[in-house]
Amino acid sequence: MLQFASALLISDLHLTPSMPLTAQRFFDFCEKEAPQVEAVFILGDLFEYWVGDDTSVSSPFQQEVKRALANLSTRTKTYYMHGNRDFLIGSSFLKKSGMTLLPEPTTVDIAGDNYVLCHGDSLCTADVGYQMFRRWVRKSWIQKIFLRLPLQWRKSIAHQLRGNSQVQYQATIKSANEHKTNVTLDACADILGMQSGARLIHGHTHLPAHHQEQLREQHWQRWVLSDWELDHPDSLKPRASALMIDSGGVRYLDLIKNS
Question: Are 37 and 8 in contact (CB under 8 A)?
Fold first, then answer.
């Protein structure tokens, strides 16, 4: 089991050239806060979307992110877990960025306590349609077929899926059925039971909070990581935070106030 005295955990940055302020905060994070701990864990959706490692060669933006990560990985251990937007990040980009890929879920020891880490989309089991879609796109043979398509086709498919996801999310919010896109107690209990854990950390839902939860005889704590959004202050409240764990306990680090 991985063991560290201190760590920072982030997820759901959705980095893209169209969000330069968010991207710049990430670059600053790699230089300022991240090197102060023993390990950094990125729990998925670092990028808005990823259609293959071959795209980074022709993308100055992805090259810039890669350089920031490569520099960070020389100063502190940097771990990555696939999200629902960038699960196609492969060995080539990981090697060049210096990140170590973690399976989902993973249990780590930070400051003497065990934490179960996952991206979080697998916990949203009330959304049956999405879980079926997730199972299909995570199949290796499906991914191999997709990665053999022309780059422009892959980008077009990704844009279409992003558009559909945004429409469905807005419809869910308007219909007051947010529970469909949130995690379920059953899923949390199952993953913690399999890992023999009582502390769970994930992202995906964009609902940062600390929860004390229970299902039948099982009790646990759950921390949800924040998404990052600094480019649309008129429509959304700016937000960016990381979860800090060290000998002082677990706490959210506001990266806007510290910018």
Answer: yes
Q: How far apart are CA 215 and CA 213, in angstroms?
A: 7
Q: Could you tell me where the DSSP H helices lie in 34-150? A: 60-73, 91-97, 128-137, 140-147
Look up residue 61 and give its DSSP letter: H
Whether the full predicted model's pTM is greater than 0.90, yes or no, is yes
**What is the distance between the alpha carbons of residues 244 and 225, in angstroms, rounded to a whole number?**
11
Report yes or no on 259 lying in a domain: no
Tens-place pLDDT, residues 93-141: 999 999 999 999 999 999 999 999 999 999 999 999 999 999 999 999 9
Helix axis angle for 151-174 and 140-147, nearest 10°, is 120
Distance CA 181, CA 37 (A): 32
- CATH assignment of the domain containing 179: 3.60.21.10
Tally of domains within the chain: 1
In the chain the beta strands, taken as DSSP E runs, fall at 2-4, 7-10, 39-42, 77-80, 100-101, 106-110, 113-117, 199-202, 209-215, 218-224, 241-246, 249-254
Structural domain for 144, as ranges: 2-254
